[in-house]
Amino acid sequence: MSGKAVEKAVYLGTFAHSKSLKELEIAHDAAIFVDESGKIVAVERGVADEAAAKSFFPKLNWTESQEKPIQIIKSKEEQFFFPGFIDTHIHASQYPNAGIFGKSTLLDWLNTYTFPLESSLSSLPTAHRVYARVIARTLSHGTTTAAYYATISVPATNLLADLCLAAGQRALIGRCCMDSLAPDYYRDAGPEESIAHTRATIAHIASIDPTHAIVKPIITPRFAPSCSSQLLTGLGKLQKETGLPVQTHISENKREIDLVAELFPQSKSYAEVYDSHGLLGPKTVLAHAVHITDEERALIKERGAGISHCPVSNAALSSGMAAVRTWLDDGINVGLGTDVSGGYSPSVLEAVRQALMCSRNLAMGEGGEEAERRKLSVEEALYLGTLGGAKVVGMEGRVGAFEVGMEWDAQLVGMEEVGLEGGFEGADGGAVDIFGWESWENKLAKWVFNGDDRNTLAVWVRGRLVHERRS
Amino acid sequence: MSGKAVEKAVYLGTFAHSKSLKELEIAHDAAIFVDESGKIVAVERGVADEAAAKSFFPKLNWTESQEKPIQIIKSKEEQFFFPGFIDTHIHASQYPNAGIFGKSTLLDWLNTYTFPLESSLSSLPTAHRVYARVIARTLSHGTTTAAYYATISVPATNLLADLCLAAGQRALIGRCCMDSLAPDYYRDAGPEESIAHTRATIAHIASIDPTHAIVKPIITPRFAPSCSSQLLTGLGKLQKETGLPVQTHISENKREIDLVAELFPQSKSYAEVYDSHGLLGPKTVLAHAVHITDEERALIKERGAGISHCPVSNAALSSGMAAVRTWLDDGINVGLGTDVSGGYSPSVLEAVRQALMCSRNLAMGEGGEEAERRKLSVEEALYLGTLGGAKVVGMEGRVGAFEVGMEWDAQLVGMEEVGLEGGFEGADGGAVDIFGWESWENKLAKWVFNGDDRNTLAVWVRGRLVHERRS
C-alpha cells in the first residue's frame, strides 16, 4: 500500500465530523475532493451521485482521461466517512502487554511488566515484529495519527519511524529519555547520553522525512521521576532549539506525585517541574493529569499545553478519574490516548467509549445539574478522539475534520443492517446491529458503543489508502 | 443447526474453567467425552492425541463404526475450550437500543428509550426480528445460557421461547409483569391480568419443552415500582405453586430506592418488599443491588438469593458501583449480567472486562490492602461469568464448568498469533495478538481484555453445535 502514489479522488455520500466540541455535523449527499497532495480542495453539498460529483471537476481544473480516471469512492447504506482517530498517547513498545497488568498500579506495573518488555525491544527483530503489528493494529482501528513512545533504544526508535513512514501512518516518534530511578538494565547512562541519543533519532527522522509530512520526532522525557534535573534542563533547551513537540506524563497516580515532590523539592508542583525546565509549552502533550491541582490546571492553561486523557488506563491501573469536563470548561486542549499498555486496548474508539463511562462514573453520587455537567456526550467524546486530539498534538487545521485545506485522514465506517428474519446472513458485518429506524445520531452512538475494527472498512492518511478491512 | 441430533463427541486439547472463585484451572492434553444427551461422561488428562482419546472408548462402552464415527474436536495452537457464558440479566426486547441512552439515568431512561421500544414488540414480525438477532448475537458472544426479560406481550414472549428452543440456546424466559407506574400504552391492566398472562407463557413453554431441558419460564415482576402489592402477592403465590425461578431488579438507582420507599412505606427496605411478598428465595435473581444496605445484604444472604452484577449498565446509566467483593466475602452467589440495553453490550466478555474495571474504580483512592481486596482478578471475573452465573440462575452442577455429569455448554476460543514480520497476514483473526511468549494465564487475560465474538470460534449447548464463527 505504502508505495502507491496518491491520485485525485472524490469521496461521496455521508460524512460525520466535529465542527466544535459540542457540534458534530452529519452531512448526506456531500462530496469531498482530495488532490494528489492528499489535501481537501473542495467540500460540496447536495451531490446526489457520481455524475453530480463530476460536474465540479471543471471548477477545480480537474481533468480525467480514459487512462487516468478519477476515482469516486461512495459510502453505501449504513456507511459514513469519519475523520481518522488521533491517539495522543500510546507506548508502541508496550503493545505485547496489552491486557496484562494484573492488580498492579503505576509504579509496580512499570517494574513488573513494563521495563522488562521495553528493554527486550533493543533486539531489532523483536522491535520490528512488535512495531509492525502496532501500526497494523492501530491503523485497523482507524488511528491515522499516533503520538508514540518507543523505548530508550535509538535503532529501535528509528525503526518505528521507518515503519510508520512505510505504512503511511502519521506519527510523532518519541525516544524515551530516562536516566534516573529506572533499573540498571534499562536506562540512559546519564543526561548527556540521553540527549545525544534523542538527537540521533531526530536526525534519523529528518533524513527519512525531511518535511515531517508523515513522521516527526517528539521530545520525550518519560516522566519526572525517571529524569534528572540536568536531563530535563537539556531537553528543555533542545525543545527551544528545535521547536519540536514534547510529550510526557503527569499526575497519573498519587504515589507518583509524592515521589515527584520528594525528588523535586524546589518545585511547587508536578506541573512546575516541567515548567521550570522549559518543558511546559503550547507544544507539550501531558498524559493523564488525573490528580492535577487547580493551580496546575491554571498553569497548563496559561502555557497552552494539551492533555491526553487516557480513561482505559486510568481505570485499569486504578489511577483515578480525570475531571475532563473541568478541563474543557477551562478551555484546555484535551485529546484521547489509548495509553497502551497501561490501557489494554489500542483502539481510540474504546477510549472514546471509556471516556464516556469515566465521565458517568464521575457523575455518580452527584445529583441534577452537576451530574449532567460532568457527563460527556457521544459527540463530545468523538471530538476528543479527533479534532481535540489534533489540537493536542499540534495538528490543528491539518487533520481531525473535513475542511478545505485539511489533509484527507479518514476512515470509512460501515455497520450491519439486521435482515427481516433477524438471524445472521452472509459475512461478518461486525458487532453493531442497525435496525433501520435509528436516527443518524443514534447510529453513531451504536457505533461508539459496540463498534470495533470490523466497522472500519478503509483508512486513508494524507489521501493514501493505508488500510482495508481484513475478512 | 438446531435440527441436528447430538452425537457422541470427544473434545481434546486445552481447557480452561473455574473450579472455584479463586481457582481457574487450565489443562492441556485433556479430553472430555460427551454423550448423546449432551452430558460430560468422562474427563481425562494426559491425552496427547486422537489415538490416545480413542483408547478410552472401551472403558466408556463407546463403539464407533465406519458409518458412525465418533467426532473428535481438537483445539489448535492458541485455542482453548471454555465454558459457555451465563448472562444472568438481559432484556432481549431492548436489544435494538444497545448503545442508545444519551445522558439518561434509570427512571428517565425507562420512559424515554425503553417503554416505547418494548411496546413496539407487540408486533410479532418486529419481535421475531429482534429476538432472532439477540439470540444469534449472544450465541456468537459465547452466551450459552441467558436469563431473558421479554415484554408484557404473551405472544411475543412465547415467540422468544420458541426461538431460543429452535436455536438451542438455554434460556430462562420472563414475561415482564407491570401493572403500576408505567405508561398507559404499556402496562398490564391489573394484577389478575398480569398473573393470567404469566401463566399463559408458563403453559406455552411447558408445551414446547416439557422437561425444561433448554427453555424454562421465570417469574418476572419488572421491579417493585411497577408492581402493585397485589401483583407481587400473586406472583409470590405463583412461585410457591410452581417452584419456578424469579427475576427482578433491586436498588439500581437512588431515586428508584426513594420511590420504592414511598410506594411501600410498610417495608423496611427494598429487599424486604420482595421478601414480604414471597419473592426473595434461593431461586431469585436480583439484578444490580448497587445500593443495598448491610441489612439487605444479610437478608439476601439468608434467603439464598443471587445477585446479577451488571457493571456496564451501572456505569452507562451512572447508577453506581457495586461492592462485588463484599458480596463475595459474604458468600452471596454472584453472576454477571449484560443488562442490555441499560448495558450497551450483549457480550458477557465485555461484562467480565467491565466488572474488572468497576472493581478497580472502587479501589481508587483506597490504599494498600483495602484497594487490593476490592479488585477482582481475571480468574474471579471469569468465574462470575460462568460458574458464578450458573449458581445464580439455579443451574449449579449442570453448566458453568467442565465436570463429569455436567452438560457440554462450551465455546472454543482462538486467538491470533503474530507472525515474525508483525504485519497482518491472511484472514481476520480477531483483535487479540499473541506473541507466543505469554503464559497461559496471560493469554487468558489478553482474551478477556481485547477479545470479542471473533475469538469465539464455535459454541455448543448441551452437546449441540449452536454457533460457528462467521467469516
UniProtKB/TrEMBL annotation, chains A, B:
One of its GO terms (molecular function) is zinc ion binding. It is an enzyme of class 3 (hydrolase). GO terms for biological process: guanine catabolic process. Its cofactor is Zn(2+). Pfam families: Amidohydro_1 (PF01979). The keyword Hydrolase applies. GO terms for cellular component: cytosol. Its EC number is 3.5.4.3. Gene3D superfamilies: Metal-dependent hydrolases, Urease, subunit C, domain 1. Residues 82-466 form the Amidohydrolase-related domain. The keyword Metal-binding applies. Binds 1 zinc ion per subunit. It catalyses: guanine + H2O + H(+) = xanthine + NH4(+). Keywords: Hydrolase, Metal-binding, Zinc. InterPro entries: Amidohydro-rel (IPR006680), Guanine_deaminase (IPR014311), Metal-dep_hydrolase_composite (IPR011059), Metal_Hydrolase (IPR032466), Metallo-dep_hydrolases (IPR051607). Pathway: Purine metabolism; guanine degradation; xanthine from guanine: step 1/1. Belongs to the metallo-dependent hydrolases superfamily. ATZ/TRZ family. Catalyzes the hydrolytic deamination of guanine, producing xanthine and ammonia. This is Guanine deaminase. The lineage of its organism: Eukaryota, Fungi, Dikarya, Ascomycota, Pezizomycotina.
